[in-house]
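The data are quoted verbatim here:
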Amino acid sequence: MIQITTTDAGVHATLAGLLHRMENPRAGLKGIGKLVAEFAKNRFAVSQDPYGTPWAPNRPSTLEALLGSDPKNLTSKRKVSTRGTLLLIGKKPLIGETKSLMSQFHWRVEGNAVEIRSSMIYAAMQQFGGRKANFPHLWGDIPARPFFPDAARGLPTPIEARIVQVLQDAILGGAF
């Protein structure tokens, strides 16, 4: 517990506000939730894990299924058309037709913590990967393509610096 005694009314009000913000971390936690959820969404734009390692490329079977989704992607001689070529060039891992996985990140404050999660049932499989031997319904092994930071590795430096800034802003509250 911090105890400070002051007789100046102006200092007292500012100090009381500062102590209140330190005792109630909700504003800072909300800021962190928004920041980390947005950071996870941005992993899809760059096709990289939170530490800058590129995700595994799409499997040939994924690309074949994509080409087969529209007859205009192939010529009459079953060669890849110009349209199909452009489709293949633009196909990034984990970004499906609905873009649901990259857009369904949510956060909530629970006590003195913030939880960031995906509401997509297959998000964990994409984050951690999986083996066909353990999941027989898969077409093959799924490589891990993480979009959330790994607890063992800690926060990537850029996001850590931004979280520190969010916390400083929440505690100081523009009072200084």
Notes: The CA atoms of residues 49 and 146 lie 5 Å apart. The beta strands are 105-110, 113-118.
